[in-house]
Amino acid sequence: MYELMNKDVPVLRFSYDPSRHSVSELAMILNAEYAPPSIVGPGMSISTRSVAYWWEHRALPASRDQLDRLVSAIGVECGRELLEHNMGLSLSDRYWVRPHGSGLRWADVNFFDNAFSDELGALTLIPGSPTRDGGDIDLMSPNSSVGGNVPKKWVIGPDGTRWLLKTGNKTARQDVYNEVVATDLHRRALGSGEYVPYLLVGSDDAAFCACPNFLGEDEELVPACDLLLKHSREEGFGTLGSVLGALGESGLDPGYLRECLAKVFSLDYLMANADRHTGNFGLVRDCVTLEYKRFAPIYDTGFSLWCDSYSLSRPGDYSYRPRPFTGGPSESPERQLRLFDQYEWLPDVDLEGWRDAAMEILSADPYLPESRLHAIGRGIDMNIDGFRRHVDRMARLFPLNAPSWMEEPSIAPPARGGNSEAAPSPQRQPHIAPTDRPERRRPHR
């Protein structure tokens, strides 16, 4: 018999099948209010199925790049077996599992305060890394439960800060550099606590991006998907309204939440982020008081700037289907951007300066051809133009929601009988970049 814990509060007891590496039966609910939000249904109900689902999705995902190679090198059957060796501990929340009656305490085992080995991390970051000769690998590590598809690992910095290192996907490493490009954009447009800063470490074949853990004392990250799960059978599930409704159950101000989503998806539009799903945005909750404190800072923007496009030689190559909203907004980035009309939060951002910074950052990628770098620059120019058109259009329609620095919209209202959407979509049109761009160079590290 095992206990699911929230720090030192027992949440429930369950039996476990080690042959299948899965939860077999929910035995007793002790403190449902302290449970992970994803396992709690209507009326604070919890089922064996929901606990088993939570355990399965806490493990390294089956979609993780080179997962088969990783588990083979370690000598385990699957990602769930790794959780058995680290008590299900994570650096994203305060949940863990202990044998019933063991007397183990949070202070003795958690990775926020206790050191952990890098042996497993070396393999989760670079699955082909050689294993230690002689003896077993120390699997008591948060790297048994770090989510996402790209290889990554947690490390401890000199001052004790927990840092997450990520490498690129199996076909290219542009996403490593994209995180740094996104950080430059976020720094220009947002406050310091509204985004997670990424920096580039290493170079060439050993280039990674790194970011600090953004959680404070007793805080946990609650992804939007965890709050949406119990609404999955409701009409309208997957729309912006359903997402706002689920987030609003936290008690946070609806206007604040809508503004936060506007920031996420407006800046994602500029970054051409094709992978903003409900698992990589959400809320921060105090796991002791159970109070939702704020919208989580923006993180995980690497799968962007057309890094998965084979070619960027034609206008249609810049097209992609954005996530996570269903229906019309999923058809194009422009349609998704139209969901948001409030831009009081938007400062007078030097987007051309960001564009040039992006080119400098990306130029350090040794696998990025010069021609593709210029093509990405043209795409960024198109997105800047499209974003400005959208903000101007919203300022015409909703003047009270316009940025304070915008004296008047720069786009004239359509003539009688005209169509405000007559201009071709900037996401779809070729654009000739200025010829006076600075010479490509590697930034100083």
Automatic annotation (TrEMBL):
Q: Residue ranges of region Disordered? A: 406-445
Protein name, please?
HipA-like C-terminal domain-containing protein
Q: What is the source species?
A: Collinsella intestinalis
